[in-house]
Design a protein that fits this description.
The chain is elongated. The protein has about 140 residues and is an alpha+beta fold. The strands form two sheets. It has a five-stranded antiparallel β-sheet, with no helix packed on it. It has a four-stranded antiparallel β-sheet with strand order 1-9-4-5. A hairpin with a 5-residue loop joins strand 6 and strand 7.
Amino acid sequence: MKKVLLILSIIAVAIGFTSCEDEPCRYHTQTLDLRVMQADWQFDDNTLQYYYHFDVPEITPFVYNYGNWSISREYNSGTADAYQVALPQSVYMTEALADGSIAYYTQHIDYRVGIGYVEIQLTNSDYFYGQEKPENMLFRLQLIY
């Protein structure tokens, strides 16, 4: 019995080492950085939210139908302190008002994916938006197909 298990284990390892040599490899990964600059955010008057539309040709019909993806927001990009938070993300915010009081609200960041594109959506609770557009943000799209 031990010999059979040993032989099966050896066969499984051998198949694992040669799986992409005999035919095209069917496993691919790709990470894309999606950067939104503050000036580039667009506001949708119908949904009362900010958004940014990225053309992403890497999301082909095959990737859309059979692949998997995740999107994270990256903080402190390019530093040793960089970290990612998976979307959707809710951030609890405050803003000082002109009368000296403080407004508390939640900023919700989400996304949608379609063939050839990703759209990032940013919505503030109670549709509370200050005078400025949202800050610069970096998102990381991880594709597995």
